[in-house]
Amino acid sequence: MSKILSLDLGSSSCRLLLSEKTITNFEILFYAEKTYAEPLRDTFNEENRIIITNQLKNLVREFKNIDNEIDYCNIGFGGSSNNSVIIQSSMETDKDDEIIKQEQISLLTKNNPKINSFTTHNTTHIIPLEYSLDGMEGIRHPLGMHSKKIGVHNLYVNIERNQIDLVKSMIIESGLQPKYMISEIIASSLFLLNADEKEIGSLVIDIGAASTDFCLTKKGNPVYTGSIPVGGNQFTSDLSIAFSTNLDFANQLKLETSCTPENERIAEKIIIKDKDSTKTTEITKRQISQVMKERVVEIFTMIKQEIVENLGQLNLTSGDWPVIQTFEYSLIQNVDLIFEKPGGVEEVNLYFDTTEDYAGVAIDRFDDSIGYAAGPVGAEVHLVITDPMLNIDPTTEEAWIFKTQTSGSEGVSY
């Protein structure tokens, strides 16, 4: 059994957690939270240091009344102070038949000049994603194998050095000793996801007060982490502006009404007071949910955009737009395409057009003699669609129609 003391320093409050981990259980022994008089509008700095330190001292004072033995703690960092980057390293061994050892793998991780570019950050996590042996990709556990050339893609998770130094000094001043520095979102992903979810690919999103952190896990490991400067404070501000109410009441609306399909259908009325007068207004949970939904869509779109820019489209799971769905028109007389849209009228207008002027299709089995693709039945066909306008707007749907034809037949349309 081991006790772990952890601190979470957020933009609106700081939290302290004492937990105990056994072979079969994880138990919370003590938890406390102290809210700042006003949310921090910036990252930790010398100006807001006093506010945070005073609340930390209050937390530690309460904790010492419960457990006076532990004086070291782990610190989780989140928000804009975190970043991650994937760096490829490689090295050659002395002999072709030399067995790969742990010493070589450790040297491979450190033997890269790009790591020296982390001049303003400290690396808190180095996660090997996959290895390559003599050009063979996708190897996860190279120990004991033979190879002349070893390569690895490592995920380096870094935290701003000035933030680490500042937080350390505040914690020491409060009466504790910092031990491990970790990324909050990686710790959350490792704890929340089971083995299957880590393997097939999962995205964990943590919406904080001032920022939203996310971690994409795939093939058993975190493959990318990031943070966007949009959080719960923006939800509160949106509700305050939309319904002309004060921030405190808007925050209460946010906490009591979730952005779910169920709430989008609830017409239950809530009376709110205007922030500048004694006037009252009736609104529904549906209206509250719709306001928050717009901000949620923005957050998810920004996260997806960052993942695509850094890792590429193939690292997104199914269900993301754009989606290509095929229908065999020749088997039915009337075609009625219905797309399930989240809220609003479920109606889609399809505009039929040819693609010669702005798009193109390339097929790896094209036969010039007959003017279209040809191949044996059941053959795999690699189709590349070049269309700069395809689903440029994620709130709309588009349809492509393809026609396949066999000798002596009228063809089948999809």
Please summarize what this structure is.
By secondary structure, the chain is an alpha+beta fold. It has helices at residues 49-64, 102-110, 161-174, 184-192, 195-200, 232-243, 247-256, 285-311, and strands at 2-9, 13-21, 26-35, 72-77, 82-92, 121-133, 136-139, 149-160, 177-183, 202-207, 212-218, 221-228, 269-273, 280-284, 360-363, 366-367, 372-373, 383-386, 403-404, 412-413.
Number of strands: 20
Q: Low-confidence parts, pLDDT < 50 over ≥5 residues?
A: 316-335, 337-343
Characterize the largest beta sheet: strand count, sense, and whether it forms a barrel.
Answer: 5 strands, mixed
- Rg, alpha carbons: 28 Å
Sheet-strand content, in percent, reads: 25-35%
Structural class: alpha+beta
Element pattern in H and E: EEEHEEHEEEHEHHEEEHHEEHEEEEEE
Layout of strands and helices, then pairs:
Elements lengths: L1 E8 L3 E9 L4 E10 L13 H16 L7 E6 L4 E11 L9 H9 L10 E13 L2 E4 L9 E12 H14 L2 E7 H9 L2 H6 L1 E6 L4 E7 L2 E8 L3 H12 L3 H10 L12 E5 L6 E5 H27 L48 E4 L2 E2 L4 E2 L9 E4 L16 E2 L7 E2 L1
Parallel strand pairs: 1-4, 4-9
Antiparallel strand pairs: 1-2, 2-3, 5-8, 6-7, 6-8, 10-11, 11-12, 13-14, 15-18, 16-17, 19-20
Description:
By secondary structure, the chain is α+β, with helices and mostly antiparallel strands. Helix content is 25%, strand content 31%. It is built from eight helices and 20 strands. Helix 1 packs across helix 3 (161-174), helix 6 crosses helix 7 and helix 6 packs antiparallel against helix 8 (285-311). The longest helix is centred in the last third of the chain and has 27 residues, at 285-311. It is flat.
